[in-house]
Specification:
19% helix, alpha+beta, OB fold (Dihydrolipoamide Acetyltransferase, E2P), 6-stranded antiparallel sheet, 3-stranded antiparallel sheet, 126 residues
Length: 126
């Protein structure tokens, strides 16, 4: 299982890559492995401003449907349109082409609440 150390993580198994005031968000390798084969990604929040912890979309796998939660507050400025036709990309490349949304961060202090790679690793190994 891959856990890039340049990312921050949430307790809900999202990863966050911060570039200035924009965050790219996806689900972790651990999360996609737990979900199994992803068959549908639904994100209809582009252009919306959401608070940290609010649902920005859902992922449907063969065995379950899981909500996706905002890791930080902000506006969803971009959705990965490729996932509409190829949701399996999340299984194959969760940290690359399987990204889900980009957020314009509205409260940078919330980034301090995200987990480091070591904190996330301890959480999933517990």
């Amino acid at each position: 299982m891959k856990l890039p150390d340049n990312l921050r993580y949430t307790q809900d198994h999202e990863w966050v890559l911060v570039d200035g005031d924009v965050a790219t968000v996806g689900i972790t390798d651990f999360a996609q492995g737990e979900l199994g084969d992803i068959v549908f990604v639904e994100i209809e929040t582009e252009g919306e401003s959401l608070d940290k912890g609010e649902i920005f979309g859902t992922v449907e796998a063969v065995k379950t449907v899981s909500d996706l939660f905002m890791p930080v507050s902000g506006e969803v400025v971009e959705v990965n349109e490729e996932l509409a036709d190829a949701p399996e990309v999340v299984n194959k490349d969760p940290y690359g082409k399987g990204w889900m949304i980009r957020i314009k961060i509205s409260d940078e202090s919330e980034l301090d609440e995200l987990l480091s790679v070591d904190e996330y690793r301890k959480m999933i190994e517990a």
